[in-house]
Design a protein that fits this description.
mainly alpha, 14 helices, 2% strand, 72% helix, two-stranded antiparallel sheet
């Protein structure tokens, strides 16, 4: 159990340190969300996860509720920071896309537990494709391109890791390449296109579309091995770094704690992924194996999109770093998924 939660604790502490230096208000809120996540973990330590989540209608209901909430956002959600990503209930804001990530993991785990040996059949590829493409289409229109990419990553990750043959992989990539032309022309908004173009020309428009990644690179590059010290990060503390508590919190953390601190967070994260996969490999139930696989895929996709944006290796997409970035719904959902993995470990 400790080998699963020690790395998570390291990442959470790193996030809390960064938040406390930037905003005491967000630090206190994040501490509350972490406490709620911890209660979820304790609950599933004593409650057998299979009682609820090994039932088909429960999983379909979970997926349907998340989809309905996303559709409600698209139709009637309040516009906050030029997007309809949050359902506001008094002092609490809920992100339905975070619920959809968990719902897709359970749905794909249920679907592939008896079809993992036939994953190469086009029927299974196409059917599983529609599970993610509907919420992804809604997410793009919110607009939340980052979540749409995570939905895609969960689906494609399952196909790859369950043994999709290379010819099927190439065919699928070709289909999405053709679809990408349509998406570029008719779906993406102007600022999405500008970010992608800016990715290929990082030295241009550094005060415009490339401003965020430029400041992130400055924060990381100026940190040195030991960093500038707690509360001394100039890019984050003086407001040059965009979204230092969410999308670019990894850059804000490295600026204060250096490359050494960043390597500790990376080591903790990769160890966490390894432990989740190891737990999945030890259980005899295909459903439980697929859940662990899905959780590892989701965390990994989010990490690579977030870290890739912060370092300029990917266009700026707007995805949180699991357990590090500020976010109430994301923190509770991530802890919930970790609680299920720990419950699988306990009963393997």
């Amino acid at each position: 159990m400790l080998s699963l939660f020690i790395p998570v604790g390291i990442i959470m502490v790193a996030g809390l340190l960064t938040l406390s230096a930037l905003s005491l208000h967000l630090f206190l809120l994040q501490a509350i969300w972490i406490a709620l996540g911890a209660l979820t973990i304790v609950f599933f330590f004593f409650f057998d996860w299979r009682t609820a989540f090994n039932v088909r209608w429960v999983i379909w209901a979970f997926y349907a509720i998340a989809l309905i909430l996303m559709l409600f956002l698209f139709l009637h959600g309040p516009v906050i920071r030029n997007a309809r990503n949050w359902i506001v209930l008094g002092p609490i804001s809920i992100q339905p896309v975070e619920l959809m990530k968990a719902a897709l993991i359970f749905l794909y785990a249920m679907y592939f537990r008896r079809r993992h040996l036939a994953v190469a059949r086009w029927q299974n590829i196409v059917t599983s494709f529609f599970f993610f493409v509907v919420p992804a289409a809604i997410a793009v229109r919110l607009p939340d391109l980052g979540s749409a990419l995570i939905f895609f990553g969960i689906w494609f990750g399952f196909l790859l890791l369950l043994g999709l043959p290379l010819r099927r992989v190439l065919a699928t990539v070709l289909i999405f390449a053709v679809a990408g032309v349509f998406v570029w022309m008719f779906v993406l908004r102007d600022y999405h296109r500008a970010r992608i173009v800016g990715f290929f020309y990082p030295q241009q428009n550094t005060l415009g579309v490339n401003y965020s990644v430029t400041q992130s690179r400055i924060a990381i590059g100026s940190a040195g091995f030991r960093g500038k010290g707690y509360g001394q990060g100039t890019q984050a503390e003086l407001g040059f770094l965009s979204e230092p508590t969410e999308d670019f919190i990894f850059a804000a953390f490295i600026e204060e704690w250096g490359i050494f601190g960043g390597l500790i967070v990376l080591a903790a994260f990769f160890f966490l992924i390894w432990r989740i996969l190891a737990i999945g490999s030890l259980t005899e139930e295909n459903f439980a194996k697929c859940i662990c696989l899905g959780v590892a895929i989701m965390f990994s996709v989010q990490f690579f999109l977030n870290a890739g944006s912060a370092t300029g290796l990917l266009p700026v997409i707007g995805v949180t770093f699991p357990f590090l970035s500020y976010g109430g719904t994301s923190m509770v959902v991530d802890c919930f998924l970790l609680a299920i993995v720990n419950s699988i470990r306990k009963r393997s």
